[in-house]
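ok so I'm stuck.
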Amino acid sequence: MKTSHLMFAGVAFAVVAEALLLAGNKNGEEEWASFRDAHHCVPVAATDGSNRAGYQCDDGQVHYRWRQMR
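replied:
not stuck anymore, here's the structure
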């Protein structure tokens, strides 16, 4: 088998694998939105100067969500 065929097969495999990983990656935002509404969560910010922020919910816990840095 030629090297170019092996390289093409490797690239094709990588593309298919990445597509499958992206298709299976669910971020759970829909579940979080329904949980936040059902548990009356309100945003709270950390006062220690960090970039942490969370939601205080009626279950007595602060739930932290991932935030993208800009």
